[in-house]
Each structure stands twice: as structure tokens, then as C-alpha cells.
Amino acid sequence: MSVVLVGVSLITYAFVFLTPGDPAYTILREQQQGPPSDAQVEAFRAEQGLDEPFVVQYASWLGDAVQGDLGISYYRSEPVTSLLLEYLPNTLELALAAVAVSLLLAIPTGVASAVHRDTWIDRTSQIVALTGISMPNFWLGYLLILVCSLWLGLTPVSGAGTLGHLVLPAITLGTGMAAVVTRLVRTSMLEVLDAEYVDTARSKGVRERLVVYKHALRNALIPVVTIVGLQFGFILNGAVIVEVVFQRPGLGTLLVDSIFIRDYPIVQGVVLVTAVAFVVTNQLVDLAYVALDPRIEPGGRGVSANE
Amino acid sequence: MNRRTALQTTIGTAALAVAGCLSSEPDEVDFRIGSPWDINRDPLDGGSMVRRLGIAESLLSVDYEANPAPGIATEWDRPDDYHWEFSLREDVTFHDGDSLEAETAVESLERTFNAASFTDLPVESIDATDETTIEIATETPFSPLPAHLARSDACILNPTTFGDEGSVSELISTGPFAVDEFQPGTSVTTVRHEEYYGEVPEIESVRCEIIEDDQTRRMNLENGDIDMARIMPLEMVESLETNDDIEHYMPEIPRIRFLTFDTESEPFDDADVRRAVNFAIDLEGLTESILAGVDEPAVGPFSEEITEWANPDLEGYEHDPERARDLLADAGWTAAGSDDVRTRDGEALEIEFVTFDSRSLPLIAEVLQDDLATVGFDVDVSTVEYNAMLDEVGQGSFDGYLTSWGTLQYPDPDRIAEMFHSTDATLFHGYENERVDELLEEARELTDREERAERYHEVQSIVRDEAPVAFLTNYTNVVATVPELEGYEPHPTEASYGLETVSMNGE
């Protein structure tokens, strides 16, 4: 795990270093809303250690990071850790809610679609899924705000904090994901329903409902869990558009804003958090395999190694 | 987790979500603003927002003529070229109840002037000579000093909030509103400062929310979640005009869009080629077609509407493609047919304009591309991210780039030295004119307003004629509010939202 984290941070640090746009110049320009002079830029570089060679800068960042100090934002003069702690809950909340929405929609639809293969149920759900994949996030967001907030007055337009604030963004983000997952559930269910052990179960006289839910679905969910795990990681800093439309301060927006103003300590911090989240999600996905598939034993060969 | 618990959990969550849907928060503040800009706690990180919201105040304010005006300091005097004296009010109280004295103001100003964005100013020392007087000595005669003290990043804060490394733990200043709750990146809530020395505001509390997205901001306004939406896009003006439930204001602000030439390389090292570009551009057509007819064509760095520093005799280039063609032909750039790309010594008149991904600039660049094609330029437009653009043009490898600038960031015309002075300029145009340098340097030292104005007016004439930049358009802010808002008067330099004078009536 630590290898992954060091690797990720080194790569981002290098990318950041190679990006055009001098952080000293950019930050000063943002702060005073006008171009800084050479003397100011020099002073800022010296203050932030930006005039050191790459290796020295990285080593000193890494040294501090190991001790839990992610540095201070260039632009906001606040510790990066406290900024991350401020933004993380909103993002986690949204990611979890979106995943919940997507599973809630995708699993029943996917299963129904597979069980009633090539019927109107299947076709309809396929079309809906296709629409879901094709619909741009921001557009669905505006549409939901118009309908639910402006016409029906059910939810607040935007913001964060209460559950009401969470509903629309979760639906916006969740439906897009649900579309992908529905198709996955369908494919993988179809595969499993054709498997011999399902025939065996049927021939034993197990009721069809039980066959579908207990025998088939459980096995079909394994690839689904993998994808959902991955998607969860992406939502953590890939939900920028939804965050902007619904005015939710989250890691995605924080990251993008920081890249634009070359606030590198924050960029590093967010990337690190995301890397940790990916590693942790992967572990959880592996654990979910164990719960779903009795053939995989905890600690056994079946568990993929992430260390 | 087995299937049943999973199902129960999800159903539970859904039920809660629906419940959350139905409960709406009661509104606990009198006035709510939605603005796209982030709000910083420390004015040195960018103090525009805390200043506009009436939380923090600078030593001087900016009046509606865009000049430095009394604020915490009621009057100022320049006993000799190198010294300034500022007399402070006696009844100024910080939000936490501490009273402001000259000593405290000096401590706050010292932190300000040690910051990177102030190190270039020739300030030598700041001292409190008695309880209500501050004396500032400068290394060189420096007339723009009061304007710099009126900057929004020069706000006076209570020094008890200063940390070891120049950080600020809390925003405690002297404005008509005090911070109640500060949620970085989200919102700031303020309550009125009862001990404010000036007129105590009618509204008791304000919340400013950061709503980056234009559509979302508008929908918030329509839904009654906010009372004022700042910076609406120009294309929304038409629909705002027909909407009776929304009031809108369209103040011009001291900001211009312009095209900067690289005057050190072909073809724009020739002033006639730069003039030809100016003649070729149809600014009226441009503002009508893509700026909804709202923004006006710019004639120089300042607009007469806003400040008397603008040269009143200045006239922009008229749209005269024929003249542009003549100028180019005289400069040796010839074309076989009228639609052909011109050439000189076998080299084609091919240029590249760089701009960044802002709202209007990429569109403007495309209009310029068309306009210039009609006189024989072959223009390539590339749109990049802002800082990547600065990086590119900073290395001097460009023909021209489009950008926008606030021209009264501090309320003094010395700002245009940053545009046109041969060494102070930060535009990378490489333009040098001894007369311009001389005028700018003299005007920076002189006290008399008339004498200064003469010089700045002359600078504006020279740069209009020699065209190191092509001025394109002025800038308009569109502010939408609920119709109940009364007493709102947009400030010309956006130094304040004037919340201390507004009220919500006519419910």
C-alpha cells in the first residue's frame, strides 16, 4: 500500500512540476488580481522553497507528509489537512449516496432484464440504460433542479448540509452510474443463468425465484462489485460537474480549482487522499468477494494482493 | 452484510432521503447573496469579497467617482513629497469590541506592506505619531499611495488575530458587518456591527454563498433561495428583462478586454500593421453579435463613464477596412486578390492569437479572425487555460493574445504604468516609448490632480496612436436581484456591495 502511495505522489509531483505555469506567478496574480513583479515572484519562491531542485522539494514534502503534515495551501494560507477534512465529508456523502442510488436502480432492472430476456421488459430497460449513459450529467442536474425545486418545490436548488440537499446530486450522479451497472448486471446474470449449476438447482426443484436470487444473482454480482468499487473511487474526485451544478464544495472542485491556480500542496493532498481511497476501496471489494463467493477464502490464494 | 440487511439499509436510506426532501430549512438571515467568487479569510489572499460584503475596511474607501475617499482615515495630507499623514477617526471599533488606535492600524499595515503583493511599493516606514495620526514615509515621491491604502487587500485587521507566520486566525475588522460564520469555499454569514462608526445598516444579517455555476445561481434566485445573484452572463440579459419577478442592474466596471501585440517581432513590430488591425476590427458588430449589445467598445484603458482619468478627447479607431488594406500595402504586405492572404518578400501574413477559456474571449478571437481575414491576415486562434497562456506569452513567443484587465484595481491611473511603461509593464508586448515612460514617471510623483491628469491623458493618446495593444471592449456586470431590494447602487469599482444602505421592502 505504501508503495502505491509513494508512487502516486511521486508521479503527481512530477506532472505538477512539468505543467506549464509558474505557481509563484500564478498565485500572486490571483491574490492581487494583477500581475506580480519579478521581485515578488522571487520572494514567493524563496518563501515556499520553489527555487530548490525537484528532488529536494519532493523529499521535503514527503518527509512532512509522513508526519501527517501536508503543508499549507499557497493561495488560502490554510493547512492542507484541514481543507481536506472540510471537503471530504461532502464528497464521501455524495459518493455513497450515488452508489446507493445506482445499486437500487441497477440491480432490480438488470436482473429483471436478464430474467425476462428479449421481452419488452428487457428492451425498455436497455433503452432507459442507454439514455442514462448518454445523458450529460449537468443537463440532468439542471432538469432535476427545474422540476423538483422550481416547479414542485420539493428540494432546495443547491447547497450542501441536509439530506434534502443530497437527493438531487445523488440521483444525477447515481443514474449515470446505474446505467452502466444495469448493463453489467444483465450481462453477468445472463452468463450465470446459463451455467450448469443453475440448471442443477432448477432440476432439484428449487423455486425459480430462489434460483434467480440466491443462486444466480450472488455469483453475478462479483464483477458488479469490482466495477462499483472502481466507480466509487472515480466519484471521489471525478464528480466535479455535479459538484459545481449543485454548489457542493467537494474534493473534485477543490482539486480542479487548485490545479487552475497552481496550488500544488492542495493538488498533492487531494491526490494522496484519492489514492488512499482507491486502495481502501479495493480492499473492501476483495472483502465483498469473500462474502459473495464462498469459494474465495479469507487470506487464501483467491484474494488479490494489494500490498 | 447479507442480502436482507443490505436491502433494509438501502430502503432506510431512501426513506430518509425522501424525508429530507420534504423538510426545508427556515431562512435565518435578512439578505442572501449568491456569487461565483471564493471568499478568503485573509484579505492578503485576495480581499475583494470581504471588502464588498462590508466586513473588512481599508484605511481609505473608494467613492462613487472611483477615487480614494475617507474611510477609517478621514483626511490625508502630503506635507512634503516624501511624507503622508493620515488622520484617523476616533470612534472606530473592531468587531470584537477593541477600539482602533493609530498604533493598531500601523501594526496591521506593517503586516500588509510586508506581503509579497506590496513589496514593490516604495514605502519606507509607517509610524503612529499620536493616537489618531499615521505617518508614512516613501523612498520616492509616490502619489498613488492613498489609492494603494484603499486596496481591498490592504484591509485593517485586529492585530490580536495575527499568528506567528503572518497568518490570520479570525477575520476581525471594522466594517458595518461582522463575521458570524465562515465556511471556506461555501458561504459566509455576517451580522451587523452595532458599534459601527458610520450609518448602522438596516438589514441585520447577510449570507453570501459561493455558487459557481451561472444557471444554478439564477435558479436559486428564481426559487427565492437568494436575493441577489452576482455576475450573470450577458446572454441571460434578454430573459432577465422579460422577467417581472427579477430586477437587474447593469453597471459598467473598470475592466477592459484587449489584444496585446508582440511589438518586437514581425509583423507587429510595425506600428502601421498594428493600426491596420485596429481599423479592420468592427467593434460595434462584435459587441452587438456576441456581447448581447451590452458591453461597449473600448477606446482606451479607462472609460469616461467611470473615471475622469479617462482622456475625454480620445476616439477609438473607426471600422475602416479600406484604410487597413492601404496601411498594410504601404507596409509592404501585398495581395493579389482582395480575399487573398497578403505576403511580403515571399512570406505570408500568418499570425496566431492566443486566448484563454473565458466566457467571451474565445468568441471574440473568432470574430477578430473573420474581420482580419477580410483585409488579408491569416489568423490562427488557439485557446488554452489562463496560466498556460501567460506562460506561453511570458516567454515572448507570440504574435498577439487576448485578455481582460481591471484598470482601477487600486483607484489610481498609475495602474496603466503596468500596461505601458517600458520596465513596469507586465504585458510582455515589449513596447518602449521614452515619452510614455517620462509622463508616467512624472505623474507618479506629482501631487496636483490636474497636472497628473494631463500626463495620463497624453499617455492614453500616445498608446491609442501607437497601438501596442488594441482596445476591444469595456465590461459590464450583470446583477440580478429580487424586486423587493431597495437602495442598491452598484459601485463603479465594485469596492462595496453597499449592503449598509440597502433594505428589503415592498414584500
What's the arrangement of secondary structure elements?
The complex is a heterodimer of chains A (307) and B (507).
Chain A lengths: L1 H17 L4 H10 L5 H11 L5 H13 L13 H36 L4 H15 L2 H15 L11 H31 L2 H8 L4 H31 L1 H6 L5 H10 L3 H29 L15
Chain B lengths: L2 H20 L8 E5 L12 H5 L7 E3 L5 E3 L2 E8 L2 E6 L13 H13 L8 E8 L2 E6 L6 H5 L27 E7 L3 E6 L12 E6 L3 H9 L5 E2 L7 H5 L5 E3 L2 E10 L9 H10 L2 H8 L30 H10 L12 E2 L2 E2 L1 E7 L4 H13 L4 E7 L1 H9 L5 E7 L10 H4 L13 H12 L3 H18 L2 E8 L2 E3 L3 E2 L16 E2 L3
Parallel strand pairs in B: 1-10, 1-11, 16-17, 16-18
Antiparallel strand pairs in B: 2-3, 4-5, 5-7, 6-7, 8-9, 9-10, 11-20, 12-20, 13-18, 13-19, 14-15, 21-22
Helix pairs in contact in B: 7-9, 13-14
> Helix coverage percent of residues of chain A?
over 70%
Under the CATH scheme, the architecture of the largest domain in chain B is Roll
Major sheet: arrangement of strands of chain B: 8-9-10-1-11-20-12
Low-pLDDT segments, ≥5 res of chain A:
302-307
- What is the rounded Rg of chain A? 24 Å
Q: Kindly identify the CATH topology of the largest domain in chain B.
A: Dipeptide-binding Protein, domain 3
- The coarse silhouette of chain B is globular
In CATH, what is the homologous superfamily of the largest domain in chain B? Answer: Dipeptide-binding Protein, Domain 3
Overview of the structural elements:
The complex is a heterodimer of chains A (307) and B (507). Chain A is mainly α and 307 residues long. Chain A has helices at residues 2-18, 23-32, 38-48, 54-66, 80-115, 120-134, 137-151, 163-193, 196-203, 208-238, 240-245, 251-260, 264-292. In chain A, helix 7 (137-151) crosses helix 8. The longest helix of chain A is centred in the first third of the chain and has 36 residues, at 80-115. The relative contact order of chain A is 0.13. Chain B folds into three domains: 1-43 and 179-251 and 479-507, Periplasmic binding protein-like II (D-Maltodextrin-Binding Protein, domain 2); 56-174, 3-Layer(aba) Sandwich (D-Maltodextrin-Binding Protein, domain 2), CATH 3.40.190; 253-476, Dipeptide-binding Protein, domain 3. Chain B contains 14 helices and 22 strands. In chain B, strand 16, helix 10 and strand 17 (378-384) form a beta-alpha-beta unit. Chain B is globular and about 75 Å long. At the A-B interface, helix 2, helix 3, helix 5, helix 7 and helix 8 of A face helix 1, helix 5 and helix 11 of B.
